[in-house]
Structures are given as C-alpha cells and as structure tokens.
Amino acid sequence: MKRRTEAYADFVQHPRYGKLPRVTGLHPKEDFLLGRVYLGWLARPDERVPDTAIVANTARQPNATFPVTHYFDLKRRCRDCDRPFLFFAEEQRYWYETLQFYLGVDCVRCIDCRVAERGPERGRVAVV
Ligand SMILES: [Zn+2]
After folding, report:
1. 31, 66 Cβ separation under 8 angstroms
2. Using CA atoms, how far apart are residues 90 and 71, in angstroms rounded to an integer?
3. For residue 108, how far is its CA from the centre of ligand 1 (angstroms)?
4. 37 CB contacts (<8 Å, ≥6 apart)?
5. Ranges for the Probable zinc-binding domain (predicted)?
C-alpha cells in the first residue's frame, strides 16, 4: 500500500482544504433502511476515502427528501483537466448547509478549473 502522501501526490491542491484526505476516524456504514446512516448517491463507495466522515446537520440541508447524514472526502476526476482531486467532506458541508445547494449538486471540476473560468462555484453540476 502506498503511503498517503504518495497516493495523493497528483491530486489538485485546494487553497482551503489542501490535497490530502482529512482523517477523522469516523467511517459509518450505510444503513438506509433504518434511516440512521444515509450517505447519498453522490458518495459512491469506490470514491469514498475511508475514515474521513463528518456528521452532517440534516436540518440545514435544503428540501432534502432523504437527508445525507454524513459526508466523506470523495475522490473525483476533473471534467476539464482530467486531474484527480478531492471533494472534501467539509466542502460538502459548506455547499449543502451554508450555500444551500441542493443535495443532488455534484462537484465535477477541480478548484483550479473552477477559479480559472467563472469563479469558485462554477464546477458544480446539478445531476438530478
Ligand atoms: Zn481541473
């Protein structure tokens, strides 16, 4: 297994969150039927970074039929420059709870491409 810094060496550096996953030690298992843990379908299992979850404040998510209970750091590949980057758990919390983006809005472009074109919020795409 590669060391963490090597595994993420090619990832795009985010000015606020960095480039390495933020390990919290939290790794809840999906438990949709009981309603205790719902990670949302943007958090595909192969893209979740283990042990990086943070607890969501579901009351702050806008109009969520199925509120997402936890955010994980998610691996993404930029639609424009094809570089890998992380859609950080804390970034998701900011998007969905502070900026009030709909939970179906995904991050498809790295921060560099977002800033280079129209400002930091350009890279989001509503996929629902
Ligand atoms: Zn990019």
Report:
1. no
2. 8
3. 9
4. 28, 29, 30, 31, 69, 70
5. 73-118
Instruction: Provide the residue ranges of all domains of the chain, joining segments of one domain with +.
Output: 2-119
Contact 124, 101 (CB under 8 A): yes
In one-letter notation, the amino acid at residue 29 is: K
- Compute the distance from residue 31 Cα to the ligand 1 centre, in Å: 33
Cα(119) to ligand 1 centroid in Å equals 13
Helix or strand holding residue 27 (H, E):
none
What's the pTM value of the predicted model, to 2 decimals?
0.89
**More confident position, 5 or 104:** 104
- Dist. CA 125 → ligand 1 center (Å): 14
CA 102 – ligand 1 centroid, Å: 22
Beta bridge partners of 14: 18
pLDDT category at 128 given cuts 50, 70, 90 is very low
Return the DSSP state at 98.
I
pLDDT digits (tens, 9 = 90+) for 70-109: 999 999 999 999 999 999 999 999 999 999 999 989 999 9
Q: Tell me: pLDDT of 28 over 70.
A: yes
